[in-house]
Design goal:
By secondary structure, the chain is mostly helical. It contains 11 helices and no strands. Bound molecules: iron/sulfur cluster.
């Protein structure tokens, strides 16, 4: 049984914060856009620049950890399903006692929807989520031998689980090189010019294309952390940004 992962500092990201004083290595930076206009198309990153950026992320935080507490792939799946439009801290508060009594699909079914609802009633959309937790547990037992499947297509057939959920589970539970795109990754992918896209799927595929395999296991967490703690939505902290010399955003403040 896997060890529960806990951290006091992170809030909503699902990951722990980046250390404050990362080392920065000189790299040939891309020229800044001459016109600071939102509409100008950023020049694509070179392979060397992408490698340099992720080398810096790795050096600053070699083993980024997920924040959602879980005991095994099944409880991770349930936690991710419960985390939609909720904070990780809020989910953890509810799942600690829930997983203590139900850490397998069968135990969850034995508990029953009504009691599951009671455990998770502090989480938004809890009625629907309780239904999904029971339904996905039934399906896991009926179709997957009680185990969380190892393919995105199969995970996506589970009630309450979409592509992002599947990518998180495949990455965190099974070490697959998937890229779950949440609001932070979407913003960072677009702003930096690493993987511009109009939809999460476009950004996901773009990131998978440019990020070298050696970084893909942790790339999702590094980018979430970057968006959460540095490249903030309203007021990005460009002055302390690890990759401010590489970033293509015309409005960066350095
Ligand atoms: S330089 Fe600013 S906009 Fe660019 S990635 Fe860093 S924080 Fe974000």
């Amino acid at each position: 049984m896997a060890k529960i992962i806990r951290s006091k500092s992170a809030k909503k990201t699902g990951v722990s914060p980046v250390p404050k004083k990362p080392a920065k290595k000189a790299v040939k930076a891309a020229p800044k856009n001459s016109a600071k206009s939102k509409s100008s198309k950023p020049r694509p990153w070179t392979a060397a620049e992408v490698h340099e950026a992720f080398s810096r992320f790795r050096k600053a935080n070699p083993e980024p950890k997920g924040e959602l507490e879980h005991l095994n792939p099944y409880t991770l799946l349930v936690a991710v399903v419960l985390s939609a439009q909720a904070t990780d801290a809020g989910v953890n508060k509810a799942t600690r006692p829930l997983f203590a009594v139900a850490d397998t699909p069968q135990k969850m079914l034995d508990l029953g929807e009504e009691k599951v609802r009671e455990y998770i009633k502090t989480i938004g959309l809890y009625r629907n989520k309780a239904k999904n937790v029971i339904a996905l547990s039934e399906k896991l037992i009926a179709e997957f031998g009680g185990e969380v499947p190892r393919t995105r297509a199969e995970i996506e057939t589970l009630p309450g689980a979409g592509r992002k959920t599947a990518n998180v589970v495949l990455n965190m539970a099974y070490g697959e090189h998937t890229m779950a795109v949440d609001t932070h990754v979407f913003r960072v992918g677009n702003r930096t010019g690493l993987a511009p896209g109009n939809t999460p799927l476009e950004v996901e595929l773009g990131l998978e294309k440019v990020i070298p395999p050696e970084f893909m296991l942790h790339a999702h967490h590094w980018l979430i952390l970057h968006g959460r703690y540095t490249c903030l939505a309203r007021k990005p902290r460009c002055e302390v940004c690890l990759i401010n010399d590489l970033c293509r955003w015309p409005e960066k403040t350095v």
